[in-house]
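Re-running Microcin C transport system permease protein to confirm reproducibility after the cluster update. Everything else is unchanged from the original entry.
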Amino acid sequence: MGAYILRRLLLVIPTLLGIMIVNFALIQFVPGGPIETIIARMEGGGDVFETIAGGGGDAEVQQESANSEYIGARGLSPEFIKELEIQFGFDKPPLERFLNMMWDYMRFDFGESYFRSISVVDLVLEKMPVSITLGLWSTLIAYMISIPLGVRKAIRDGSRFDTWTSGAIIVAFAIPGFLFAILLIILFAGGNCFRFPFGISEFFRAYLPFLYDANPTCSQTFPLRGLTSANFEDLSPWGKVKDYIWHITLPVIASTIASFATLTLLTKNSFLDEIKKQYVTTAKAKGLSEGRVLYGHVFRNAMLIVISGFPALFVSVFFGGSLIIETLFSLDGLGRLGFEAVVARDYPVVFGTLFAFTLIGLIVGIITDITYIFIDPRIDFEARG
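Result of re-run:
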């Protein structure tokens, strides 16, 4: 086992390096950059996409833009732009910038955000409570409900219970998380007083008035935004727990709803495969009770395939975040951080979080393999290798 773990740890290095190389190379071909973002802000554009698109209607302005390396850099001296290039390190060739970046990352020095005057580590730690809340609780709730439900469905395969629960979880899987979040806001958070973007409010008012008018007095069963109340620090310890749960209920439900289907059906099919095997028939023939057969023999073997999906589920929910759900519930988490960093071309945040989260994901995969050994000692990765 030690040799296998060592090989996996050594494979982390080329895997991580390959991911960083691909993403760094792609960034070089993406229009715009941090300098263009600063120029757009100084000239009142305020948006990097406006800078990329260019501006100016008359021929003189267009000619001046054409003579500049940075579209939209009108009125800014070449010396100032040169200083910006030196400040951000763009005066160096891409290969040198990449090697310097990787050397810093290997020492866990992720630098400082271009636009927030804060280190990347401190910025991630600042947003982490939201991701911990959504990721941890969503994963725990999904496993706590899906595994018992999947076992029950396997035991009662083909029954009426199996049929209607399958229909329910498929419908839940088909509903987009952001749409379910909007329904929760309308029904339980005074949604008829909340102005949704992109014409969503008008859609519900026109086609689903019974939902939109569910709270005619704008009463809020659950809060609409934030992880805690304004007076959180003044509450008692039990009051803080209740306030925290009160705030996270709707966003956690919205982020969990789509996880039930895959995990439940995976658990059910895994149990059905194990139930049909010879050792289960032998155990029943020896007079063992159904509960002991299922939970003493079948459960351990059936859970292997379920555990194999845990790293992907945990890492995706915990570190990926949900941009739309965070936006709807006014939660400032890693989802919004990543989106804003990409839009603003805040490269230290983009690459720093990519490096850290990819490394954590690879380590979690190794931990999962080690967990296999504790569940089923018959597994021997070294022999397979």
